[in-house]
Amino acid sequence: MTTSFYLRPIALADSPQCEDGDAVRLAGGMVYASRFALIAREGGKVVSRARYSVPELRASLSGLPEAVAEQFDNLQRSHAPLQCGTRTVRLDQPQVMGILNVTPDSFSDGGQFMDDPEVANAHAAAMVEAGAAIIDVGGESTRPGAAAVWEGDELKRVVPAIERLAGMGAAISIDTRRPAVMEAALAAGGHIFNDVSALRHDPRSLEFAARSGAPVVLMHAPGEGEDLHGNGHYADVVLDVFDWLAERRDAALAAGIPREKIVLDPGLGFGKSLAENLALMNALPLFHALGQPLLLGVSRKRMIGALSNEAPAHKRLGGSIALAMKGLDAGVQLLRVHDVAETVQTRDVWRGLRDAALTDFSQLGD
After folding, report:
1. DSSP result, 303-316
2. Among 301, 316, 347, 354, the one annotated catalytic
């Protein structure tokens, strides 16, 4: 029986000097890990769990399976910036991706920016001005139970929005599962493909994405076809999602998509219960072991309502910020959000705290 291994950071530090240098920098960012759990499982069941400090892990690597050393290297891998036309999105610090839905039925802002181009344009400009590094344009709702969108309708919704954003000089991602929409978005001035099906929905998607040279976001969703929320059955949601993302990463690499152009998203809210979403949030540092930048999309999600007396979507700012902070503490590179100005402010204060921790040498003593 094959044994799978997972190297999960379980203790994070504000700075390496907090641990007298015995901490590693996660993903080239502003978060450090000092202790790790090495988890082994067979047949979907965890069979062992051992804990290591950084010195212990380094001393033991030669006697551990090669997959463990690879994950340890991946955890420390720095990521090249995403090049989006003339814009460069650095990944050595957290960035905010603003959401622009041009749909009639989005769970949060359905229809608000679809029928009036001037309103959509003003909202997009405000997000860019507030500090969004990327604007993510979506023409199809992927909430549970949402009706499928005809490709022609999706094109009519997203292409004009992308053209307007391109005129602003914004970095643009297109939230779509369809290669024809990807192609039209690229021609209109888009830069990144954000596919909630991880390039599975259409068999042509992988080849087109590789040929285009565009960066791709591969998101975990357990379902197939039109129901991405279906089939959400897990032996262990954290490890199952990890394995699934590893498989999609490898499929993208095999198709010819360069490693530096692959971003992974654990798919919070897609085919997962509240308990499973919370488990994923608490395990976010593990996903750096896949060796790719991470995107986190939890803004205004239903899990916030479930934890806050069923607050409606437009009243979930506090919960969205709390989850964004959790992502920042885990070293996530991209936060996909509705409330850009508030999240950018949160990120900037968080970064100030990190900068202060890195320059505070009072903990070293005499």
Report:
1. HHHHHTTT--GGG-
2. 301
Closest alpha carbon to 267 in 241, 291, 293: 241
Write the pLDDT tens digit of every residue in 94-131: 999 999 999 875 555 555 555 577 888 899 999 999 99
Beta-bridge partner residues of 89: 82
- To the query of whether residue 301 is one of the catalytic residues in this protein, the response is yes
What's the pLDDT tens digit per position in 132-165? 999 999 998 877 767 778 889 999 999 999 999 9
Per the CB < 8 A criterion, the answer to whether 268 and 280 are in contact is yes
Give the whole-angstrom CA distance, residue 230 versus residue 144: 9
CB atoms within 10 A of CB 240: 17
Could you give phi then psi for residue 21, rounded to 5 degrees?
A: 85, -5
Would residue 35 show up in a list of annotated catalytic residues for this protein?
no
Global confidence as pTM: 0.94
Fold assignment, 82-354: TIM Barrel (3.20.20)
Report d(CA 214, CA 262) in Å as an integer. 9
Domain residue limits, the chain:
3-75, 82-354
> Which phi and psi angles does 256 have, rounded to 5°?
105, 10
